[in-house]
Amino acid sequence: MDEKIRRRERLDRGIKVRTEGIYAISSWRGIAYTSLPTAAFVLGLLIIPLAVTSMTWQKIIIIACVFAFLALSFDFLAHFVGIVCLGGAFFTGVGGYISGVLNSAFGAPLVITIPIATIGGAVICTLFLLPCLPMRGIYFAIVSLMYPLLFARVIQALDIFGGTDGLPGLATFPNTWVELYLILPMILILTFGLRRLVNEDFGIVLRAIKDNDQAVRASNINITWYKMKAVFLGSAIGCFAGAYLAHLYGWVGISLFALDFSIFPIAATVVGGVGTLVGPVIGAIILTMFSEMLREFGPLRVVFYSLILAGLVILNTGGLVPYLQRKYYQFEHWIEI
Amino acid sequence: MNKNVILQVKGVNKSFGGVKAIHHVSFDLLKGEILGIIGPNGSGKTTLVNLITGFVKADSGFVFAEGKKLSGLPPYKIAGLGIVRTFQIPRPYHSLSAMKNLVVPLYSSRIMRTIGGKLGDRDTVALDILEEIGFERDAHVPYKHASTFPEGYLKRLELARCLALRPHVIIMDELFSGLSVSEITAMIPIVEKLQMNGMTIIMVEHRVRELFQIAHRVMVMNFGEKIAEDVPDAIIKSEIVKQAYLGVT
Amino acid sequence: MNIFIFGLVNSVILALMASGFALVYGVSRLANFAHGALYILAGFATWLFLNRLGINYIGSIFLSIIIVSIIGGAIYRFLLIRVKGMPASEIIASLAIGIAIMELFRWRGFISEAYMLPPFVAGSVSIAGVVIDWQRLIIIGVGLAMMLSLWLFTHHTKVGLSLRAIAQDKHASMMSGIEPDRTAVIALAMGSALAGVAAVVILPLGNITVETGYMVLIDAIAVCIIGGLGSWAGVLAGAFLLGFSRILTAAFIGPHWQMVVVLLFIILTLILKPSGLLGRQKELEERV
Predict the structure, then answer these.
(1) Residue A134's closest chain B neighbor by CA?
(2) Is some CB atom of chain A closer than 8 A to the CB atom of C175?
(3) Which residue of B111, B239, C178, C279 is most buried, as measured by CB atoms within 10 A?
(4) Domain enclosing residue B29, as ranges
């Protein structure tokens, strides 16, 4: 047989090998190489708003950040704990309404409503999701998907908390710079914080639960308790996003429970790179920008990113960040077998 | 109650649908012994292990450990009492390194309650346990991802996971299965050393010859029932056991 | 008496909606979140055939049910089959496809009240002093007929028996020569057909809207969770429990509270008997 079979081989780049571990500081080039990705990410997030002067684009960046929060929450729960949460909208809705009601009915200022909504919302969401934790993952997925849809209908039907019209006239942030520079550092803190968490011991146990929960049970660990803490963290992140949104627009309504807030983060995670924590953030930014550019198409946008999501999930692609990492750290060539 | 009995199984029954997996099984486990449990495939050995350790609830009957009732407790609580088990097919936490695999049980409430404060750096403790169990202590081995290890190492990792909890009783579910003779020969001294240091061990096995080298007593199961319980020499000669395995009358 | 009859109708409606979802889950362990989308797809297709292509009513119904089955089977065969076995991806993929379909309809403007299907038989009749329209009676009839034919199908035909076999024990069925993939395609086609039947029978009661699609999904899932995923009797039990509670709530407390009741029942089920009323899922006991 004269057919030559070729396969692709990947090798670490020379500079990557030379800068392994402590050797990263052995040369200026080495330092630059190892710190470039992180620096680009951090500086990019912090500086872009300054570079972009139009109001609309600044608003877009803010929205992207809100979705980035939700995407981080999804990625953390799905890929480090093994809990697939299809109910991002549940968190935004609960968080948004708590801060909205506190502000509207009690006049609490937003520096109080947002923290209370974050923690209180997380407590409520965790309680509602608690019964699903001992069961198979699919129950959690289904129930978390249903809760926002049901809650929205309940609010509508009972006409509480403003009913279909919502609660208008809430306190808003003093100016756009506060909006931006409140949320951007938080994204950075959250991303790097979560990265740290999953490598510290609490995170190690969570990852073990994802890999083999029977073995963790057999190791005298109450996995329901750990999962509960993880869900609390995930929902706190989402509730913060909801509370922030409420004060961004000065208005809460049942649209905070919209399916959009559940699907978009999943799409952002899949686009950016599952399990990377940085990927979802980047994915959120990219998708929001696309969404903006396709604004004329109206509801068709949702069709677009559902199809993209379905396509990416079905084709099981890795996502943008792993792709970039591969290119950055390794080079490929064809070799013959 | 005999002071030497560390575990008591009394009249447990379990059916799955219409199939009776465990039929009125009772036995006592004596402190410090190695009890082997053998039997043809499907005799209910693993189900028995699951029953004792709480992964499956018995339909009737009880399990006692030093006077405490185990029946009805969830698995993590039974492990907390010092009764641990290995899994027949070891599935380590594949996204973690071998060493981090062991850090997980070091966060159990059993450890936290007793020596948690004095544990110091858990990574070092994990490395110590790995060394005890036969992993080389050089720079790279414990840090490799658990999914990259061959079966012999994975079995040891399973055992290490149990040892990290400082148990009194270890139930080894087919520790020797999937290992070569030389690997088993290397494992036997580890098991013996554990027993000599005071551990009580139940070994569910198919590798009867190797098991009989170290077991003090052996229990034989067939079709969910206990059909014999004696010292290895007597079991070898028993007609009932022969019939169960070979079906000759 | 009023309550009894309308409760019965409601329950049958819920059972019809849920049976497609339950069938697919029971046979291939796939939670088909595109169920709602397939439901309104059948509705819109019937409307299109009837009003744009001028095909008679019965023909339109027939055609749209067939088309929906084909689409359902195709979704599995070409798309979902690639994520088979990864529950997270299955759910996300089927949900994304379902949303894409439903939002596509929304974009094309199918949200006004102009889209309605005519009832099979107009007018109403009085039974035991209760005035009820013919369509609702037809629903009961169709519902019972569906249940009966499903039962006969799964107990007496080769294909039906293979569906049950796979549902009970996948590996044993594979060893008997039943291909799980082919069976899954059939299951999805049948599930979609059931959704279609439900749609054409129920939609004449109101309008066809995109919101209905989401509601059907919620209702079907609610019935399955409460009754028990994986059990036919469970679907019936869940449907009747929910159906009657909703009517009773509407009658005695207020129609707006129906959703609260649904939410409450789901939470209660999860806390008290997570596998559902008649569910046979051994949640924790497998895998050791």
Answers:
(1) B74
(2) no
(3) C279
(4) 5-246
The alpha carbon of residue A288 is apart from the nearest alpha carbon of chain B, in Å, by: 31
CA A302, CA A294: separation in Å to the nearest integer?
10
Residue B123: CATH number of its domain: 3.40.50.300
Among A204, A214, A222, select the one facing B104 at the smallest CB separation: A204
pLDDT given for residue B117 in this prediction: 64
Residues C242-272: tens digit of each pLDDT: 998 888 888 888 777 787 888 888 888 888 8
pTM of the model: 0.88
B residues 183..212 contacting A (CB < 8 A): none
Q: Could you give the domains of chain A?
A: 55-331 (1.10.3470)
Of B87, B96, B109, the CB nearest to A208: B96
For C228, name the nearest residue in chain A, comparing CA atoms only.
A139
Domain ranges, ordered by start, for chain C: 11-216
A219 contact B CB<8A: yes
Answer with the residue of higher pLDDT: A195 or A161.
A195
Structural domain count, chain B: 1
A87 vs chain C: nearest CA distance in angstroms? 12
Residue pairs between chains B and C whose CB atoms are closer than 8 Å: 7
Confidence of residue A2 (pLDDT cuts 50, 70, 90): low
The pLDDT of residue C111:
59
The model's pLDDT over A28-67, given as tens digits with 9 standing for 90+, comes to 888 888 888 888 888 888 887 777 777 778 888 888 999 9
Is the complex ipTM higher than 0.85? Answer: yes
Chain C residues within an 8 Å CB radius of A80: none
Section B186-204 average pLDDT: 91
List the 1-20 stretch of C: residues with Cβ below 8 A of A: none
